[in-house]
Amino acid sequence: MIIPQTAGQRLRWTATDAWVLTVRTLTHWKRQPGMIVAGLIFPIVSVVLFGYVFGSAMAVPGGGDYREFLLPGMFGQTMVFGIATTMTAVLNDKSKGVSNRFRAMPMSRSGVVVGRSLADILNSTLELIVLIGCGLVVGWQWRGGFGDVLVAVVLLLWLRFAVVWLGIYIGLVLPSPEAGGLVWGLLFPVTMLASTFVAPTLMPGWLGAIAEWNPLSATVGAARYLFGNPGLTGDSWAAQHPVLLAVLWPAVLIAIFLPLSVRRYRRISG
């Protein structure tokens, strides 16, 4: 095989291999639809549990229906769980020797991790569509225009794309799938310590400040604003500029973990 020499050749090489890896991952999911269903069970159960069981006792700052407050939070939480989903897939490839086979092939090192991220974002789009449909069934609705709804969906997927790179990096660093269980455990407090289920203004002062600056809170707040849902309160800079932060936080995560993931993969591929 002729190794690409110019920047254009290397870019085409990376893009081609990334697409091949994307199709490979999507084919696996197509043959194992239970994986997708399992990923949707938790958010659907949470919507029913919090929306109907606890919803009557939950307060929304400024008034409004709690289910309309809750659903954007569930959309955001599901996107963040992409960390563990991607991490698990990367760890499984390592443990089964798939990564070793990739190393033995004339493949672009960047294309392998880029392909994983592209497959995940396509799967995430499907997840988000299903969750929005479930939200409409339980009484949630958006009150903004179609353009605002589209921007909200893009921001949710933008967050998912960012945390996918964090998941890839963690999967490349951890030694075994068993070690990944710790990450699943940490995701719950991280996603709870945000505006997912409760407005930060109802939390103790120091805890509310942490929750307001959580990247998840920024995306959830932006989604609530764009969907026209209740719960947008707070005097802090973070609470007043959720859309801007929903753009910046994922950009920072991508800027950090995309090059780290590519570098880590290249290092273990030596």
TrEMBL record:
Pfam families assigned: ABC2_membrane (PF01061)
GO cellular component: ATP-binding cassette (ABC) transporter complex
Residues spanning the membrane: 34-54, 74-92, 113-138, 150-174, 181-203, 243-262
Domain ABC transmembrane type-2: 34-268
Keyword flag Iron: no
Membrane topology listed for this record: Multi-pass membrane protein
Compartment annotation: Cell membrane; Membrane
Annotated GO MF terms: ABC-type transporter activity
Biological processes annotated in GO: response to antibiotic
Keyword terms of this UniProt record: Antibiotic resistance, Cell membrane, Membrane, Transmembrane, Transmembrane helix, Transport
Keyword DNA-binding in annotation: no
InterPro entries, sorted: ABC2_TM, ABC2_TM_bact-type, ABC_2_transport, Nod_factor_ABC_transporter
Family of this protein: Belongs to the ABC-2 integral membrane protein family.
Protein name: Transport permease protein
